[in-house]
Amino acid sequence: MARPPIAPPSLNPVPLDPGLYLVATPIGNLRDITLRALDVLAACDLILAEDTRVTAKLLSAYGLSKKLERCDDHAAPRISPRIMERLAAGERVALVSDAGTPLVSDPGYRIARDAIEAGHKVWPIPGPSAALAALTVAGLPAERFLFAGFPPPKTAGRRTFFEGLAPVRATLIFYEGGSRLAASLADMADVFGDRPAAVCRELTKLYETITRGTLTQLAADPAFADPKGELVVVVGPGAEALASPQDIDQALAEALGRLSPGAAAAEVAKALGLSRQDLYGRALALKAKP
Ligand code: SAM
Question: What gap in Å lies between CA 174 and CA 151, rounded to an integer?
Fold first, then answer.
């Protein structure tokens, strides 16, 4: 049985200017949509949707009905010239993905870029994004962060990807699928060291869970062997963002008194939540000093 529409808020829409509207939609809870997003979806001439069935459900929840056209990464190059013609004719075109903010690990870049290059107005209609929702609840520094999207699926590529991010002095945000979560967390613990982190699952939905701990703890958590649902992993910055180079050298020098450079680098990397690879080079240099 079709559910009755969510009671529409009292909207006070202003007429829509021509252009391309990049509209964020809910990441789970259908009430997480802005009044302005509803204004745009109600008044635009056309909605470009990643999956028209998903967007039709959202529209129906708000009692809206609108012409929808599929626009995923595959369709975008083909339909873009026609969309540019419609924009040139003064139409108002909205672009949405299945959930969250379009373009963020989602389709939309090609159409947005073409519209900008053609000189059309491109309007942001901000709203939910799983990356920012996870960042806010992770309990990790949020002043500076890097959104890294989905890690590569295979171990070798994933480790190289993480190694490239290890020196970044910021909180890192990753999207990940349930079947790869355990392997990804294990690689993160190995490459980043034992940093604080959080796994944010099913945000804004019925089974929302946020698990905070060190990467080693999270990698060993049996709940993450093959979890269901959608996931964001947030990883706190390495201790080098907090510890000075002098602190690091001191810890390495102490460890080198007892251990080989490789073992000293591994011990200090684990203790300070740093990259073992980075510390190994520094341990060799310290060892070589007269
Ligand atoms: N553009 C979207 C956004 O702004 O959040 C992201 C789209 S990306 C294709 C889908 C991924 O986002 C999922 O695999 C998951 O990693 C993350 N995600 C989306 N919704 C989520 C939710 N409710 N809870 C946790 N993660 C979510």
Answer: 7
Q: Which atom of ligand 1 is nearest to the CA of 128?
A: 4
Q: How far apart are the first and last CA of the chain?
A: 80
- Burial pattern 128-155, b for ≥16 Cβ within 10 A else e, equals bbbbbbbbeebebeeeebebbeebeeee
CATH number assigned to the domain with residue range 131-237, chosen from the 4 options 3.30.950.10, 2.40.420.20, 3.40.440.10, 3.40.50.1100: 3.30.950.10
pLDDT in tens, 56-77: 999 999 999 999 999 999 999 9
Mean pLDDT score of the chain:
93
- Sorted by where each begins, the domain ranges of the chain are 19-128, 131-237, 241-288
Q: Is the CB of 97 under 6 A from ligand 1?
A: yes
Structure pTM? 0.84
131 Cα nearest atom in ligand 1: 5
> Domain 19-128 carries which CATH code?
3.40.1010.10
pLDDT at res. 6: 61
Q: Is 106 in the pocket of ligand 1 (CB under 6 A)?
A: yes
Each residue's pLDDT tens digit, 177-192:
999 999 999 999 999 9
Instruction: Determine phi and psi for 13, rounding to 5 degrees.
Output: -70, 145
Report residue 7's pLDDT band, with 50, 70 and 90 as the boundaries: low
